[in-house]
Design brief:
CATH architecture of the largest domain: Roll
Helix content: 10-25%
CATH superfamily of the largest domain: Alpha carbonic anhydrase
Bound molecules: zinc ion
Order of helices and strands: HHEEEEEEEEEEEHEEEEHE
Number of helices: 4
CATH class of the largest domain: Alpha Beta
CATH topology of the largest domain: Carbonic Anhydrase II
Number of strands: 16
Number of domains: 2
Distance between the termini: 93 Å
C-alpha cells in the first residue's frame, strides 16, 4: 500500500513539473511576442528568388505578369485619362498598429484609416515595408531603398504604391519609423499610436503604372503598381539602420515585361 502511494506521489510530482515547464514556455513566448518565422524562401542560396517557383508549388512565381520590372522612360506611354488618376486619402490620425521584423523585411501594420482611390476602386492601406536596395529600377538604375505601401480592396486585389529613396538629407518620417528599431528576426512591437504617413510622399506625384505581381511568394498577379517618378531623400544613416535589420539585399531581380505596357501619369 505504502509503495503504491509513493509511486502515485512520484508520478503526480513528475506531471506537475512537466506542466509548469510548458506553462513557463508559453508565458515566455507571450512576453516576448516571438512568432516562429516559417518560410521556405529567402534572398540567398538554395532558397533565393531563382528557386521560388519550385519551392512554392502553388505560387504564381513563374507567371507571365511578374514584378519588379525595369522601367524604361522612353518606352512608357503617357496616360492623360483623368479618370485613372490616383487619389490619396491619408490622415494624420491613422493608427500605426505594430512594427515587426518578419524575416524578409521590416513591416509596419496600420489600422483602417489611410486609403486611395484608383480606377474607381477604393483600396485601404494595410502595411508598408522596405527593400534595400530597390526592386524596381528606372532606366537600369537601382535606388538605395524602395518603400512599398500595400493597399487592398474589398475584392482582395492590391495596389502597391512604391516610393524610391536616394541618399541626401534625412527624412523625418523615416527617423520616426526607425525609432522603433532594432528588431530581431521574428520580433514585433505593439505601437497603437497615430502616425502621419502623408509626409513620406515626394512633392511631385507623377507616377509610372503597370499591372504585375507581389514581389515575394506567392507572387500573386493581382497587383496594380504605382511607382512615383520623383524619389525622396533619405540619409545614408537611415539606409544603413534599415539594412542592419533586414536580410542583405532583400530584392527580387527584374522580371520580363512580356508585352505589358507601362504608363506615365504626369501630375502638376
Ligand atoms: Zn515589397
Amino acid at each position: 500500500m505504502k509503495l503504491i502511494m509513493k509511486i502515485g506521489f512520484a508520478l503526480l510530482f513528475i506531471s506537475m513539473i512537466s506542466c509548469s515547464k510548458q506553462q513557463q514556455k508559453r508565458w515566455y513566448n507571450q512576453a516576448h511576442k516571438e512568432e516562429p518565422v516559417e518560410s521556405h524562401w529567402s534572398y540567398e542560396g538554395e532558397t533565393s528568388p531563382e528557386h521560388w517557383a519550385e519551392l512554392e508549388k502553388n505560387s504564381d512565381c513563374s507567371g507571365q505578369r511578374q514584378s519588379p520590372i525595369n522601367i524604361i522612360d522612353i518606352h512608357t506611354v503617357e496616360d492623360k485619362d483623368e479618370e485613372s488618376t490616383i487619389e490619396l486619402f491619408y490622415s494624420p490620425k491613422t493608427i500605426l498598429n505594430k512594427v515587426r521584423n518578419n524575416g524578409h523585411s521590416i513591416q509596419f501594420d496600420f489600422d483602417k484609416g489611410d486609403s486611395i482611390a484608383y480606377n474607381q476602386t477604393n483600396f485601404n492601406l494595410v502595411q508598408i515595408h522596405f527593400h534595400e536596395p530597390s526592386e524596381h529600377t528606372i532606366n537600369g538604375i537601382r535606388y538605395p531603398i524602395e518603400i512599398h505601401l500595400v493597399h487592398q480592396s474589398q475584392e482582395k486585389n492590391y495596389t502597391v504604391l512604391s516610393i524610391l529613396g536616394v541618399e541626401g538629407e534625412q527624412s523625418q518620417t523615416m527617423e520616426d519609423m526607425e525609432s522603433f528599431l532594432p528588431l530581431k528576426k521574428g520580433e514585433e512591437k505593439e505601437i497603437e499610436k497615430a502616425f502621419d504617413l502623408s509626409r513620406l510622399f515626394p512633392e511631385n506625384k507623377s507616377y509610372y503604372a503597370y499591372g504585375g505581381s507581389l514581389t515575394t511568394p506567392p507572387c500573386s498577379e493581382n497587383v496594380q503598381w504605382v511607382i512615383f517618378k520623383e524619389p525622396i531623400a533619405v540619409s545614408l544613416e537611415e539606409v544603413l539602420k534599415l539594412k542592419d535589420n533586414m536580410p542583405l539585399e532583400n530584392y527580387r531581380d527584374e522580371q520580363p515585361l512580356n508585352g505589358r505596357m507601362v504608363y506615365l501619369h504626369k501630375m502638376q
